[in-house]
Here is the input.
Amino acid sequence: MPYFTEIATNEAPDAAQLHDFLKAARRFLHDLLNNELRLDQPRPDVPPPIFAELRGDALGVFQEYVQGRFEQLHRAVDEADPDALRRAGLTGQPQYLKLRTLAQLEQSPGDEGAYWPRVINMTDQVDTILESILDLLKSLVPGMDGYMVLFREYRATLLAMLRG
Here is the structure.
């Protein structure tokens, strides 16, 4: 089951596709940390060393602190003004281009040697879109600051683990 390919087909994504992205991002991160990513490319037996060493701890933090926070993001998107989402590039053509890039990474061909660089690039793209969402929501939704610090630090740590 693809994560981002299906949601990247709408050339004028709106808040509904933003919700779809949040669901796909949560599933992608969950599957990554469970070592169950479902990509068409072959996965090498050996993950990046630091990721392999700390994956279990990162999964625990994800399950305890981060996974449920996606619901906060969904509620915040619902509270956000559609025009503000559009101006921030989270809907319409700018968001379509971001999702399209992510879908192209997801579908890109390659062998085992391309697997982890692809996963890192996908995680980077997911992180960029999540950061855009958080940047907008912090100015629109009271109380997002504390959540944002945790979420940003977690994502930065995960990317560092993947990069080794």
Residues 44 and 112 are 5 Å apart (CA to CA). The helical segments are 15-33, 49-66, 69-79, 82-87, 92-107, 112-140, 144-163. The chain has one domain: 6-163.
